[in-house]
Amino acid sequence: MNKLIIFDLDGTLAESKQPITTEMAELVAKILTKTRVAVISGGALSQFLKQVVAMLPMDANLANLYLLPTSGAALYEFHTSTSLSAGNNWKKIYEERLSEKEAHTIETMMRAVAEETGVINFREQSWGERIEYRGSQVSMSALGQQAPVALKKAWDPNHTKRRMLQTHIVERLPQFEVRYGGLTTIDVTKHGIDKAYGIHKLCERLGIAETDTLYVGDELESGGNDEAVYKTSVQTKSVASPSDTERLIESLLTAS
Ligand SMILES: [Mg+2]
User: Fold this and answer.
1) Which of 17, 31, 135, 205 gives the lowest tally of CB atoms within 10 Å of its CB?
2) Residue 256: its pLDDT value, please?
């Protein structure tokens, strides 16, 4: 068993923005008794708590769980006895925050590019907010944050719309990191922040060699949102869906 296993969230542990299944929750709880586990994704911490933590069994070994929201721009660890307010046992280890001014600049550029390319029409109704400031990241979701998964999957199956948005936003905002996140999302963070950054920081903090670490993701192919992981020395395992990930966890548990 690897000393650390890092999972992508959407498309890997769960369907886009959906909670993990009961079966997945049980498997994650099992693997948490054997090794350290991290989850990294473009979502905000609140999303991780809803999609993953809230679904885990009450006795899950959260001390072995690490959360890297906003693509690794922040890291949270579980602390049981701290002076933190009740219900918030997740301690921030670092966060590469964007200032409100930077967030405003990014939002303005996102709107301009959406309009210019015609890829997103802000006058059309959306499912929740399209642009969200997540402290260390600004995210633009074409159909809105709460859009149904089926619509999201159908929106940009071959990545062309996201690639077009990304290319145009990078031109306007070379001082930031611009990448595509989920099925309909463009994420902007401080320059140099990506999943590789988060993995470097976590491995360093835990004193675990990257070569002893396994990364599991559904978009490891070129241009996919797990691709940055290849800048690290971690081992990788590509999965096609959350049920594929369940089978992988089962085989890791059997082999250990
Ligand atoms: Mg994914």
Assistant:
1) 205
2) 79
